[in-house]
């Protein structure tokens, strides 16, 4: 086969897959409403070849702006980002319909073309345009412009990348999110925040002690975490908007795992007032105890609310080894969910409530697994890649973040929910533990 035919064949195959995806009644209705998208399933599979030339406009931030967009599209798993060395379009071609030739983008095998422009909008402001095209269909999918403060150029690049994904797939990407984490220091572990792409790191604690398990509130403006600052593992809440931290539970023994209910009106955590760790609920406003949910003789830890607030998944040793269970949010009706292996922990619900991600120990190593909420259909996400722990779902449910030692120091990694596409998000020396994915933030 002639090598020059491969891009064309690949493009044809992907378009056929796109048409197949549009064969459902709902998709047919979308087509009838001219809402055509080149959608090929889920991120990580059947990646769509996309060309994104350098933004026009000649702004001084163009190179950095362009690099952020390309990396966003690459790590998203939706696209096969084409090397610019394959581009043949002549310099000076425009970004709007009629100002360029679609045939120039047939050569590198582009199915999607995203053209952008970056320039000043006014004193201290930046404006970006993005135009997204279906190359084989010779049509525009959509276009949008954004204006921000000049200092927010990274956020602007994320918004452009998000718009490209939305125009092609009909879905948004988690580029406007952050991670809370516990990072090892010379004196212990401190709580910090980092943007989705590993940039913009900021500190939440700086107390020189051991601080663990940060968990976002449903509103995304608070964090709960456990700290040994006063010598006991007590539960604290950091109000990020006010820059204030207060202790919410300092009962004798452990106070750990403070996870908010979806409404924010209750918080589930593990307490051990009588020496045996059990799941309790408290009022996150004043720390007062609401209820005791478990009473078994085994250790009960790591509660996680279902998205609708009706259930709690947690870890119990009542069957002899650590396994995942599900009960009603008020306690009772416990059902075991995991049956493979003798150590399964850290359950977290998917945003749609259908699946639970968790950590399982296999052959002395820790890996990420996903199981249906009824205990069926276990999928192993990581394997033979160091230790992988602390899973956390993206707000859209397409991805799972976790800490991994596969390249040495602990870093935050992200995988598509099926494990097909995995990328490292943080850089540097590592030491990132307990990553917890924020709700979507305002741009």
Please bin the fraction of helical residues. Answer: 10-25%
The oligomeric state of the chains shown is single chain
CATH topology of the largest domain: Neuraminidase
CATH superfamily of the largest domain: TolB, C-terminal domain
- Can you tell me the CATH architecture of the largest domain? 6 Propeller
Shape: elongated
**Helix count, DSSP H or I runs of 4 or more residues:** 5
Number of strands: 29
As laid out across the biggest beta sheet, the strand order is: 2-1-3-4-5
What is the CA-based Rg, rounded?
24 Å
Biggest β-sheet strands, sense, barrel = 5 strands, mixed
What structural class is derived from the secondary structure elements?
mainly beta
Keywords:
four-stranded antiparallel beta sheet; Neuraminidase; 38% strand; 5 helices; 2 domains; five-stranded mixed beta sheet; Rossmann fold; mainly beta; 443 residues
Can you tell me about this structure?
The protein is mainly beta and 443 residues long. The protein has 2 domains: 3-169, TolB, N-terminal domain (Rossmann fold, 3-Layer(aba) Sandwich); 177-437, TolB, C-terminal domain (Neuraminidase), CATH 2.120.10. 14% of the residues lie in helices and 38% in strands. The strands form 7 sheets. A 5-stranded mixed β-sheet has the order 2-1-3-4-5, with helices on one face. A 4-stranded antiparallel β-sheet has the order 8-7-6-29, with no helix packed on it. Strand 7 and strand 8 (202-203) form a beta hairpin. Helix 3 crosses helix 5. The chain is elongated, with a radius of gyration of 24 Å.
